[in-house]
């Protein structure tokens, strides 16, 4: 008996590309290099998985009278379909899982695999359910994900800490050098928190469509489930307790600088070119309503300095930053002006947007670098 499935090439390809984002180059199990195809009631369910989680999506109203479960090597299928123009394509699958994919003027032949070894989706018992506006969810991830650590010795730092408390939702990420905290008003009276792996956060950023209004979450003790549009993503949470991030955010930084975001970013990008290649140190010298940025690389006899006007009325001071880190933080500031607050040259600096209209709050923390002079 041969199973026949007719489907749109472009619709299938777009779903496969999204689902494939979870597949790793060298999976722990060979079957995890495959897509799972499952047809039930003329609905095609497509899944992929790795050790961190699973992605499922569906395509409704495929043309078939059959039901089947089969796995295909993801890379082969993606490569085969990538150059085909939009057209109906036909899958012919025999009882030995030998598969022919017919298209206008040609065909592909490949061997399917049994789906018996493909990981089964786990239930999430005693889960907390909530719905978050997509705009809020994506904004929180976008403003924090670049601060996530990559540290095998401290796995809890390798994800975004999402905290629901006091009718707010907080997104927190830190690598020990910089910290991001994005806070949004959110009507949820219970307290809950979890650590979302950075890989899953990256996949969510790429797959969630801005056309969706909300994303539905089921949060368990070990797993979290995201549902939006035709997609379901189940992720294994990072185990452990996230550090008390509030304790490292200074409350008494009394030296306040206000400056145009684009002006600072542009000056920093120019001066940073001449910084030491290994340290990437950029020196800030603050004085009355001006800031001088400077950098040098003694090994190559290069140097640069630039003065930018700002609002600053406090004691003169000098402080050093890693240029790339500061650029990342400034680039994420959504307002035309930003504020930097300092205590002294050895303690954390806070960077915040200057925007009185927004009820959301965004705070970045950056540890300074030691100056030699």
UniProtKB/TrEMBL annotation:
<feature type="domain" description="DNA polymerase III beta sliding clamp central">
    <location>
        <begin position="133"/>
        <end position="244"/>
    </location>
</feature>
<keyword id="KW-0238">DNA-binding</keyword>
<comment type="similarity">
    <text>Belongs to the beta sliding clamp family.</text>
</comment>
<dbReference type="GO" id="GO:0009360">
    <property type="term" value="C:DNA polymerase III complex"/>
</dbReference>
<comment type="function">
    <text>Confers DNA tethering and processivity to DNA polymerases and other proteins. Acts as a clamp, forming a ring around DNA (a reaction catalyzed by the clamp-loading complex) which diffuses in an ATP-independent manner freely and bidirectionally along dsDNA. Initially characterized for its ability to contact the catalytic subunit of DNA polymerase III (Pol III), a complex, multichain enzyme responsible for most of the replicative synthesis in bacteria; Pol III exhibits 3'-5' exonuclease proofreading activity.</text>
</comment>
<keyword id="KW-0239">DNA-directed DNA polymerase</keyword>
<keyword id="KW-0963">Cytoplasm</keyword>
<dbReference type="GO" id="GO:0003887">
    <property type="term" value="F:DNA-directed DNA polymerase activity"/>
</dbReference>
<dbReference type="InterPro" id="IPR022635">
    <property type="entry name" value="DNA_polIII_beta_C"/>
</dbReference>
<dbReference type="GO" id="GO:0008408">
    <property type="term" value="F:3'-5' exonuclease activity"/>
</dbReference>
<dbReference type="InterPro" id="IPR022637">
    <property type="entry name" value="DNA_polIII_beta_cen"/>
</dbReference>
<comment type="subunit">
    <text>Forms a ring-shaped head-to-tail homodimer around DNA.</text>
</comment>
<dbReference type="InterPro" id="IPR046938">
    <property type="entry name" value="DNA_clamp_sf"/>
</dbReference>
<dbReference type="GO" id="GO:0006271">
    <property type="term" value="P:DNA strand elongation involved in DNA replication"/>
</dbReference>
<keyword id="KW-0808">Transferase</keyword>
<dbReference type="InterPro" id="IPR022634">
    <property type="entry name" value="DNA_polIII_beta_N"/>
</dbReference>
<dbReference type="Pfam" id="PF02768">
    <property type="entry name" value="DNA_pol3_beta_3"/>
</dbReference>
<keyword id="KW-0548">Nucleotidyltransferase</keyword>
<dbReference type="GO" id="GO:0005737">
    <property type="term" value="C:cytoplasm"/>
</dbReference>
<protein>
    <recommendedName>
        <fullName>Beta sliding clamp</fullName>
    </recommendedName>
</protein>
<keyword id="KW-0235">DNA replication</keyword>
<dbReference type="Pfam" id="PF00712">
    <property type="entry name" value="DNA_pol3_beta"/>
</dbReference>
<feature type="domain" description="DNA polymerase III beta sliding clamp N-terminal">
    <location>
        <begin position="5"/>
        <end position="120"/>
    </location>
</feature>
<dbReference type="InterPro" id="IPR001001">
    <property type="entry name" value="DNA_polIII_beta"/>
</dbReference>
<dbReference type="Pfam" id="PF02767">
    <property type="entry name" value="DNA_pol3_beta_2"/>
</dbReference>
<feature type="domain" description="DNA polymerase III beta sliding clamp C-terminal">
    <location>
        <begin position="246"/>
        <end position="369"/>
    </location>
</feature>
<dbReference type="GO" id="GO:0003677">
    <property type="term" value="F:DNA binding"/>
</dbReference>
């Amino acid at each position: 008996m041969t199973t026949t499935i007719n489907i749109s090439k472009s619709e299938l390809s777009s779903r496969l590309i999204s689902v494939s984002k979870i597949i790793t180059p060298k999976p722990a199990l060979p079957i995890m290099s495959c897509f799972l195809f499952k047809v039930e009631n003329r609905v095609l369910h497509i899944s992929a998985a790795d050790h961190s989680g699973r992605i499922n999506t569906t395509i409704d109203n495929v043309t078939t009278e059959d039901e089947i479960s089969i796995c295909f090597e993801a890379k082969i299928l993606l490569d085969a379909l990538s150059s085909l123009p939009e057209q109906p394509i036909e899958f012919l699958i025999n009882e030995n899982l030998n598969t022919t994919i017919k298209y206008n003027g040609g065909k592909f032949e490949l061997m399917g695999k049994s789906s018996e070894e493909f990981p089964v989706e786990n239930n999430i018992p005693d889960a907390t359910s909530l719905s978050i506006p997509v705009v809020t969810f994506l904004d929180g991830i976008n403003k924090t994900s670049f601060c996530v650590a990559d540290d095998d010795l401290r796995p809890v730092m390798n994800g975004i800490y999402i905290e629901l408390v006091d009718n707010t939702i907080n997104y927190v990420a830190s690598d020990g050098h910089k910290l991001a905290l994005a806070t949004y008003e959110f009507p949820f009276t219970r307290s809950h928190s979890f650590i979302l792996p950075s890989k899953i956060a990256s996949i969510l950023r790429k797959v969630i469509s801005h056309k969706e209004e909300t994303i539905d979450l089921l949060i368990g003790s070990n797993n979290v489930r995201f549902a939006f549009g035709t997609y379901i993503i189940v992720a294994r949470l990072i185990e452990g307790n996230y550090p008390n991030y509030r304790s490292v955010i200074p409350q008494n930084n009394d030296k306040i600088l206000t400056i145009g975001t684009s002006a600072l970013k542009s000056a920093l990008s120019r001066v940073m070119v001449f910084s030491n290649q290994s340290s990437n140190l950029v020196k800030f010298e603050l004085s009355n309503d001006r800031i001088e940025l400077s950098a040098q690389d003694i090994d190559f006899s290069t140097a640069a300095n630039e003065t930018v006007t700002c609002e600053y009325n406090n004691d003169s001071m000098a402080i050093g930053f890693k240029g790339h880190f500061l650029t990342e933080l400034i680039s994420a500031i959504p307002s035309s002006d930003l504020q930097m607050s300092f205590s002294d040259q050895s303690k954390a600096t806070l960077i915040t947007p200057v925007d009185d209209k927004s009820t959301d709050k965004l705070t970045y923390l950056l540890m300074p670098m030691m100056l030699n002079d």
